[in-house]
Amino acid sequence: NAGVTQTPKFRVLKTGQSMTLLCAQDMNHEYMYWYRQDPGMGLRLIHYSVGEGTTAKGEVPDGYNVSRLKKQNFLLGLESAAPSQTSVYFCASSQRDRNTEAFFGQGTRLTVV
Amino acid sequence: AQRVTQPEKLLSVFKGAPVELKCNYSYSGSPELFWYVQYSRQRLQLLLRHISRESIKGFTADLNKGETSFHLKKPFAQEEDSAMYYCALSERQTGANNLFFGTGTRLTVIP
């Protein structure tokens, strides 16, 4: 019963490098999300997807791109990492229904130096 | 726009004492409100949602539309309640169940 799995768990990048964070869910959920968690700021929505092949911007999308080529996967890309992107990234998924529970991954701690 | 406010970053209570974690929201429509909890070294998980009117692990939360609040309460705190608590509001008008989180309250229950 994996739920939502994020890869990798930790990563250190140099400024200007690129990377992709992978999120996989095995619950057949339609909706998927990427959040970042920063001290004193809670979780903020980066991008989200309401289905395979669709993506949309959240609160803080600048500097990130996403893709949802398969229903179970949601990729978050950083094209040119900046120190301001040092954060803990969480992926989540949910069903379509109102008031439904969101299931979260274990998080990816990213440091950009 | 600040949709969810949790005024306390840190809250410490003694075991057996009552707990109240405050949450206020701003939203023009009919809000969908949740409390999520993150225990040490565990992933964020749902604690309860306002629509269910349920009590989970002794916690309850009542939606007060007049005061735009959704405070989390427990009459007798336990050590295992120590965790980070997030109040969240879901906005359907964005086309998904996007959650907007408060900044969180770290609860410490002192033995």
What does this structure look like?
The complex is a heterodimer of chains A (113) and B (111). With 113 residues, chain A is mainly β. Chain A has strands at residues 4-7, 10-13, 19-25, 31-38, 42-51, 54-57, 64-67, 73-78, 87-94, 103-104, 108-112. In chain A, strand 4 and strand 5 (42-51) form a beta hairpin. Helices cover 0% and strands 43% of the residues of chain B. With 111 residues, chain B is mainly beta. Chain B has strands at residues 4-5, 10-14, 19-21, 24-25, 32-38, 45-49, 60-61, 72-74, 83-91, 98-101, 105-110. Chain B is globular, with a radius of gyration of 14 Å. Chain B is built from no helices and 11 strands. The A-B interface holds A 4, 31, 33, 35, 40-45, 48-50, 56, 58-59, 90, 92, 94, 96, 98-102, 104-107 and B 4, 6, 9, 32, 36, 43-46, 49, 51-52, 86, 90, 92, 94-104.
